[in-house]
């Protein structure tokens, strides 16, 4: 399988996987805040925000993938 084809499969998978984790992190940040652990909540929330930023970069990378039929520079 060509690198382009593998990445076309992996990038959306990574994004979906990260989104799921980011949502869980936001949920647990809220629970930590409710439990009176604001510093823990802030750290967890920051991790979720970082994961969403990673997804922005993955989306941008995915947009740069050659489409089927385009030349695949190797």
Give an overview in words.
The longest helix is centred in the first third of the chain and has 32 residues, at 3-34. The model has no long low-confidence stretch (mean pLDDT 92). Helix 1 (3-34) packs antiparallel against helix 2 (38-63). Helix content is 78%, strand content 0%. It is built from 2 helices and no strands. The chain has a domain at 20-63. It has helices at residues 3-34, 38-63. With 74 residues, the chain is mainly alpha-helical.
Low-confidence segments: none
Shape: rod-shaped
Q: Return the string of H and E elements.
A: HH
Structural class: mainly alpha
How many beta-strand segments?
A: 0
User: Total helix count?
Assistant: 2
How far apart, in Å, are the first and last alpha carbons? 13 Å
Quote the average pLDDT. 92
Largest sheet: none
Helicity level: over 70%
Radius of gyration: 17 Å
Tell me the fraction of residues in β-strands, as a range.
under 5%
In brief, what are we looking at here?
The protein has 74 residues and is mostly helical.
Keyword list:
single chain; 74 residues; 2 helices; 0% strand
Which secondary structure elements does this structure contain, and how are they paired or packed?
Blueprint: H1 3-34, H2 38-63
Helix pairs in contact: 1-2
